[in-house]
Amino acid sequence: MLRILINALRTGVMTTRYPDEPSLPPENFRGQPIFSTGKNLPPPEVCPVDALSQHSATGVRQLDLARCVFCGRCAEDQWVGAVTMGRDFELAARRRSDLRIEITTDDTRITESQPALNREADMNQVSSEIRRVLGRSLHLRHLDAGSCNACDWELTALLNPVYDIRRLGIDFVASPRHADGVVITGPITRNLETAVRRTIEAIPDPRIVIAVGACATGGIFGEGYANLGGVDQVHPVDVYIPGCPPRPEAIIYGIMVALGRLDARQLSNQG
Amino acid sequence: MVDPTLINALQAKAMGIVNAEIGPRPSDLTVRLSRIDDLLVAADVLIKQYTMALATLVATDETSMPDGDFKVRYIFEPTTADAPDWFVTLLVSVDAACPEVPSLTTMIPAANWHEREMCDLFGIVPVGHPDPRPLVVHDGWPKGVFPLRKAFDGSQRVPVEPAEEFPHMVTEGEGVFEIPVGPIHAGIIEPGHFRFTSVGETVLLLDARLFYTHRGLEKRMEGISPLDAFYIAERICGVCSVAHGLGYCEALEQIAGVDIPYRARLIRSIALELERLYNHIGDVGNVCAGAAFHYGTATGARLKERLQQMNERIAGNRFLRGIIIPGGVRLDLTSHLLEFITSTLQHTLTDFDSLMDRIEANPSVVERFDDTGILQNQTAMDLAVAGVAARASGVNRDARRDHPHGAFANADSPQLNVMTASAGDAMARVIVRAQEVRESIRLVDEFIRRLKPGPIKIAIADPLPGDRIGISAIESPRGEAVHWLRTDANGRVDRYHLRSPSYHNWPAVALAAETAIVPDFPLVNKSFELCYSCTDR
Q: Domains in chain A and their CATH numbers?
């Protein structure tokens, strides 16, 4: 027992200061791809998961971060220089359409204008309600809806001594009845659809729904005999967190966005 | 070399024609049985005379090919430590109009789930199967719809039909009650349904129902370029990303007929050991959670986090995704990174040894681990259990030695010390994991010392050669995973099948749990530490 205490004291505090202080991922990290439109851009076929597309009339390339698995294939071989994998990991967005980026010639990204799932006014109302009720303390239920378990292990990592998400007033609970919201990973498999719907319904209103990782945000598998193809197929989503999997700090960022404690990604000049 | 006595032994027993040919690899044998009933005698010869076990079972729909039939391949491998690296495939043709095969499950318990899966996804009925309940498709799946048949369009949703409650295995009697758990569990874990039947705390029966995370991956990969399908194979399972990525690549590279540069092989093997390390160390910590030893859990989580941060520096991804690609590796290990790996692993070893000391010196933890969740050696053999779970029950098998892959396929590869124990309880599984942690750290050091400057990948032409088969077996953190890949005439994916170690180990968890009490189930389960996603695919 004494040795355990000595070991614990010797180890000291391991916890990160994110999000109070920024975090810079290592050099090799593959975050948001950055396109140099002056160069010859990769054709959509380069992307193995259909995250890259091309507008048939205008020829403008479009990148869907919700589908991207950050494999880096579009930044390899002859595309080196035209595309680089950036280190930006804070990619969470409130609307699915905010993750569709048009790669235009003037080097800016413009999101596709699309009606949001909820009307804007409703969303603002819900948002302020959530912020008022849950802003300082949030209890989440985790729901694996068919993930490969990578996102789930990153959610588990949020509870380890390094990320210790409880310091931010956030915790994971065992019952949906105790939860203020749900964090969903996976593409919503057919075999889990009923369980997913019932679990979400069991969470009292107002509730937050967060989709974590490429499968949950609609990528890789899409719709098929075994999958519904994303969380928004069963319930409106408050925040989408891209990544395959998103690193723990990207998930913290997304949860903070859901709470209104941080701003979601803004349209800005690319590069 | 292929053992010719085996062909003679099969021909002596079989009633019909036995055609043997070399393949898929030069060291393998494929035996075509003209009579479907010869399957039982042929399997009996392989199991009893040649002490082989079922490695995997692959069904294919060839109705649009010249034979116009379904094919089922029963693939066997040796089970002894000194056996050569070969697979023996028993190949039978199944009439598409009346798709039936004799069930092997009563003779080979490891065939149980394979046959049920084949029945669900292909509609090939294993006649005489002792437990023909659906496995992969769940309640409300329409009758007569088989997703892995070629005529089925996998991109469409399938209507849900009204269904009766799933017939769980139960026991009845005075004082006997059922405890249903899941599929959604009270923690951040994967989904599965466990139906305990117990008297008081004693578990009489555990019926585990899985495949909740069935994503239809094998169908999703059909018809696309094998080079594109790699990114799906790498995402079958998060914590086996390197192992499954590597297994898929080795099968693909056999088809392409390319030889991978030595430096790339070494980097692949380093990645494979780094994956084993963060898994094993995290798993030892998680087993402590099952015994409420929170210092152990927190320390395991901290060490795992340190390794995953190292992974991110090496591969740009905390699960080491994006390091292995078909043809070699994407990223080189610079001398700076190699120094970082060496020093991180040294620190990790010191801290891990200290954690193991604390576990072994703590009577309340040892008491919980000892004699809990026993898996008998014979059971492990019968179910073809893989990996740590098998080795902790005295099965001396490790695919790194038995089916050499990565750097182990090279002549000057370091010797692998296969760690075994005989008790088959949770303690034995923890001890085997701990020994393998030390062995992996030693191996990484050996691989690093062998690194010489050189190319790290070679180009693979797309499309790949058509109508070819690749097979590989990789020792993932959970044990041997068998990958089977075939290209169609145009060099696209015709059929891909993964048999993960968890697929063979889940039935063993249920049996081990029946030796324990209900409150010990989390401990038993964590000591096996299996994946749902690799099983369900």
A: 33-111 (3.30.70.3270), 120-258 (3.40.50.12280)
